[in-house]
Design a protein that fits this description.
It is a single chain. This protein has one domain. The protein has 19 helices and four strands. A two-stranded antiparallel sheet has the order 1-4. A two-stranded antiparallel ribbon has the order 2-3. Helix 5 runs antiparallel to helix 9, helix 6 packs across helix 7 and helix 7 packs antiparallel against helix 17. It starts with 9 loop residues before the first helix and ends with a helix.
């Protein structure tokens, strides 16, 4: 099986991009666009206003001294990531999330289509709203066990889990690690076009369920058709000891759902951002701890463990932000934007939007962290969209599509490779299963982007 260690770590790649960014300041001419504020105060690039300016050479050691500035500029997002990771760990410690999955399995185990649909919907909503995917890894053995009991296989189980996660991320409405960060960088209203994202999620989810179930039914009819028919699953796949639903766990889930509704209302009505959103998540943790009867020490331990699991993501955000700091200080970021805009400006806005999707999809191979990728590409893509006749909302959509959906296949994605290992699925066999689904979804995404440009989204 392919190993993620054969590929450079995302932090290695981002650090290399910081060095390359500084080298670019010595080679590229310094230049700037004129920017004007719109009615909401958002600064928009004025097309045709690019002009060269006096260069500002950076000292040779700037790529090191500017990293602390990048970390400082990304501090609000970094601490938000830590808080969300900690809160989700506390909620999981109550057993409520496991119980919800367990309840779906018990009630729908004899109806595979309904089970797959409901489970994928639950997991996709979790990814769309609070950015859950890493939290789904413990469900891999559970669903593999269940799918084998239903005479399907481990590929179906991972299709349910990671297929739903990718769809939730790709069509995310409120994901704090991707959509909220990207919209903040682009200066786009956080509450804008959520209905379109939910609608697209429903369409892609239907395609995902159909793909998973068609394969699953083929395996049920002919076990030899399984992509993992030769792999031994006789050991290591037992259900968790406690997946029962209790009144306390129902209450925790109700609090979680209510907090998400509050989260949406605050963004729409009061323009809440990271400070208020962190407060909402902290309230979720406190309420869950009380309802789940967790001791203060247990809450603290779970919170710190969950936050610690987000360390890589947090560091990637800070280091990625440094790229923008280097290019800004060297006054060449607008030069990069102008160079990218020139070929796209000769294309129609629809083709430009598709080009953005292609660029984001390729970028995700090298930077599979959604948050890190946002800080690398959105400072360029947002003003680029002004120049090529594409709205910044469409630029954000192209980013989240390219990030979310390609995570389902890129071997540089450590989480995917870890889940494949846990499910005992060789990477090449997973690719045979998932590439046709990815192709079908990309057709939908291209059509959606063309429509979004023509509709003036």
């Amino acid at each position: 099986m392919s190993s993620p260690s054969r590929f450079p770590h995302s932090l290695v790649l981002i650090f290399a991009m910081i060095v390359i960014a500084q080298l670019a300041t010595y080679v590229l001419p310094a230049g700037e666009f004129q920017r004007v504020a719109d009615a909401s105060g958002k600064l928009l690039v004025t097309p045709g206003s690019y002009a060269q300016v006096a260069a500002t050479p950076l000292p040779w050691h700037s790529f090191l001294t500017l990293i602390p500035r990048g970390l400082a500029k990304g501090a609000d997002v970094i601490f938000f990531v830590f808080v969300v990771g900690g809160v989700i760990a506390v909620v999981r410690a109550t057993g409520a999330i496991d119980a919800l999955i367990g309840a779906a399995i018990r009630k729908l185990g004899d109806r595979p289509l309904v089970l797959v649909s409901v489970t994928m919907a639950l997991l996709a909503v979790g990814a769309s709203t609070v950015g859950m995917t890493e939290e789904y890894m413990p469900f891999v053995p559970v669903l593999v066990t269940l799918c084998i009991a239903l005479k399907m296989d481990a590929v179906v189980a991972l299709g349910i889990i990671y297929g739903a996660g990718a769809i939730g991320y790709g069509c995310a409405a409120l994901n704090p690690f991707t959509v909220i960060i990207a919209k903040g960088i682009a200066g786009v209203d956080l509450a804008s076009n959520q209905d379109l994202r939910w609608g697209l999620l429903a369409v892609c989810l239907a395609i995902g369920v159909h793909h998973v179930m068609r394969y699953g039914r083929r395996v049920q009819r002919d076990p030899s058709a399984s992509l993992v028919a030769d792999i031994d699953y006789s050991r290591g796949f037992e259900m968790p000891a406690d997946m029962r639903m209790s009144a306390a766990r129902v209450a925790v889930l109700a609090v979680f759902a209510g907090a998400i509704a509050l989260f949406v209302w605050g963004i729409k009505v009061h323009d809440w951002y990271f400070t208020e959103l962190m407060a909402v998540f902290l309230a979720i943790a406190l309420a869950s701890a009380v309802l789940g009867r967790l001791s203060p020490n247990r809450v603290a331990s779970e919170f710190c463990s969950g936050a610690a699991e987000m360390t890589s993501t947090a560091l990637l955000i800070g280091f990625a932000y440094t790229i923008q700091v280097v290019l800004n200080d060297g006054r060449v970021i607008d030069t990069v934007i102008q160079a990218m805009a020139e070929p796209l400006q000769r294309a129609t806005p629809e083709i430009a939007a598709i080009g953005m999707l292609a660029f984001q999809s390729v970028t995700n191979f090298f930077i599979p962290s959604g948050s890190g990728q946002a800080y690398v590409v959105m400072p360029i893509m947002a003003p680029l969209s002004d120049l090529v006749g594409v709205s910044r909302e469409v630029a954000v959509l192209a980013y989240q599509f390219g990030d979310g959906f390609t995570n389902i296949i890129v071997p540089t994605n450590a989480l995917l490779m870890g889940m494949l290992t846990l499910a005992r699925i060789p990477y090449v066999r997973w690719a045979r299963f998932i590439l046709p689904l990815l192709a079908k979804i990309y057709v939908v995404l291209v059509v959606f982007l063309i429509w979004a440009v023509q509709a003036g989204i």
